[in-house]
Design goal:
The complex is a heterodimer of chains A (234) and B (235).
Chain A (H helix, E strand, L loop, with lengths): L1 H15 L3 H34 L5 H11 L4 H12 L14 H37 L4 H11 L1 H16 L3 H7 L9 H10 L3 H26 L8
Helix pairs in contact in A: 1-10, 2-5, 2-6, 2-7, 3-5, 4-5, 4-8, 5-6, 5-7, 5-8, 7-10, 9-10
Chain B lengths: L5 E10 L2 E11 L4 E5 L6 H9 L6 E5 L4 H5 L2 E4 L10 H11 L4 H14 L15 H13 L5 E5 L7 H16 L3 E6 L2 H7 L2 E6 L2 E7 H6 L4 H7 L5
Classes of the chains: A mainly alpha (234), B alpha/beta (235).
């Protein structure tokens, strides 16, 4: 219990004093995760929508694989990206290992299946409602996807926020491909892991509280901007 | 050039090995107000969906005066349960114009005119999903009529609506017909068929049993099933 209070106190002072290192780490966390989730949403949402309205051989198998990929172990993703970006790997020449870009790549791989799968489920339900109307109006596949994505945007926002939650709280993959290098690739989660290994539980907890606060603030902010849960919107 | 008449020759629709309609052969000329009458499960909805092209036919042929692609652009369908998009009243009504690439401002102006006409002028920016059943169906009808189609298919548009909403919908249908649109309306409401119909197609067990002017039909149908139906017998 004492550690938790100390953690809360540490978090309070870190925030109140705008600790420069905390600010730098937090901004890097946000930069990496927001970039990764934006890319993952650009891939995952259209793919989920396309999957919902398309009929092709092995569709069910594709959906099953996509759902299974939601549970991709981050450490395995990290290892995979590490092997691709390491000096002897196929993309080693790009020199991306131990950079924020490598961390973004890993987080895109982790977040995309989650966003695509939740998007697919949301769009599939909407497609069931709209099917006859959109067929009757002779819409093209592109027009159907646009209508479904636009009208389902609140559900898709939830999908994207789920992706953000997974990305910002992820540690295994970015530790491997980012290396937790001070002033370069250190983010909140890797800092927490480092402080815990050093026995600085209060500081680790403090950073943890900051991480949770950021995640909640981002979610609240986006819900406020998008007007979800407003009267008459459901 | 009108897309009508439409010709159905030996059309059949089967689902899971069961014949839903057919064989149906008929010609539907332009300018009429045709009531498709019949008991529940007779095949009224399937016949309308088949003509509109949203039902996969198992046999036969549906031919319009123009190409299928051209014909698809000049017809509308109003479903029994209105399909309301998760957007404002105005955006719902304007959607078909938006699909056709009409300028946004002109589309919204036309949609606003239609919203006024159906009594939703004060609810333009309201989410359409919160409308009442009658308002939803009027919105669906406005959305179908805004493109000024050659033919409108209405599948039991007043089922489950009260008298006031039914009267409004019937007036809109009458107005659309008087403006030159061909109307095909499926119903099992005899009162509505009498009020609106110029011609009646009576369908039972997926087969057209009788087709005649509304006057002749209600004076005394030739088909025994049709006679029993308008007498209120269980058929």
């Amino acid at each position: 219990m004492g550690d938790i209070w100390e953690g809360l106190e540490a978090a309070f002072w870190l925030i109140v004093t705008l600790d420069p290192e905390l600010v730098q780490i937090s901004l890097r966390s946000l930069q990496v995760s927001i970039t990764a989730v934006a890319i993952a949403a650009l891939i995952g949402v259209p793919f989920g929508a396309w999957l919902a309205i398309s009929r092709f051989r092995r569709r069910r198998a594709t959906i099953a694989v996509l759902n299974a990929l939601m549970g991709l172990p981050p450490v395995v993703v990290g290892l995979f990206v590490y092997l691709l970006l390491s000096r002897s790997g196929p993309f080693g020449v790009l020199g991306l290992l131990y950079t924020p870009t490598a961390m973004i790549i890993a987080q895109v791989i982790i977040a995309t299946p989650l966003i695509a799968s939740i998007s697919h489920q949301a769009i599939r339900d909407l497609w069931a409602d709209y099917h006859d109307l959109l067929i009757s109006l002779n819409t093209t596949k592109r027009q159907r996807m646009r209508a479904l994505v636009w009208d389902g945007r609140r559900s898709l926002l939830t999908a994207t926020l789920a992706g953000f939650g997974r990305a910002i709280g992820e540690v295994g993959a970015i530790m491997i491909v980012g290396g937790n290098i001070e002033n370069a690739t250190r983010v909140l989660t890797t800092s927490i892991a480092l402080e815990t290994s050093k026995g600085n539980f209060a500081l680790a907890l403090g950073l943890g509280f900051v991480l949770i606060a950021i995640a909640i603030a981002i979610n609240l902010g986006i819900h406020a901007i998008s007007g979800t849960e407003r009267e008459g919107r459901w | 050039m009108s897309i009508l008449p439409v010709n159905l020759s030996n059309v059949t629709v089967e689902k899971r090995g069961k014949r839903i309609i057919g064989p149906v052969s008929m010609e539907l000329p332009g300018g009429g107000l045709t009531i498709v009458l019949g008991p529940n499960g007779a095949g009224k909805t399937t016949l309308l969906r088949t003509m509109h092209g949203i039902e996969r036919i198992s046999g036969g042929d549906v031919r319009w005066q123009v190409s299928r692609r051209e014909a698809e652009l000049h017809q509308s369908f109003v479903f029994q349960t209105p399909i309301i998009m998760r957007r404002s009243v105005l955006d719902n009504i304007a959607y078909p114009l938006h699909l056709r690439g009409h300028p946004r401002k002109a589309s919204r102006q036309q949609a606003e005119d239609w919203a006024q006409r159906i009594g939703l002028g004060d609810a333009l920016e309201r989410p359409a999903t919160v409308l009442s059943g009658g308002e939803r169906q009027k919105l669906a009808l406005a959305r179908a009529l805004i493109i000024k189609p050659d033919i409108v298919f209405l599948d039991e548009p007043t089922a489950n609506l009260d008298g006031s909403a039914m009267r409004d919908i019937e007036q809109l249908v009458q107005d659309a017909h008087e403006s030159g649109m061909t109307i095909v309306l499926a119903t099992h409401n005899l009162g509505q068929a009498r009020r609106l119909g110029k011609e009646v197609i009576y369908i039972q067990d997926g087969v057209i049993q009788e087709r005649s002017s509304a006057k002749a039909f209600f004076a005394g149908p030739e088909d025994a099933g049709a006679a029993a139906f308008i007498n209120g017998d269980i058929v």
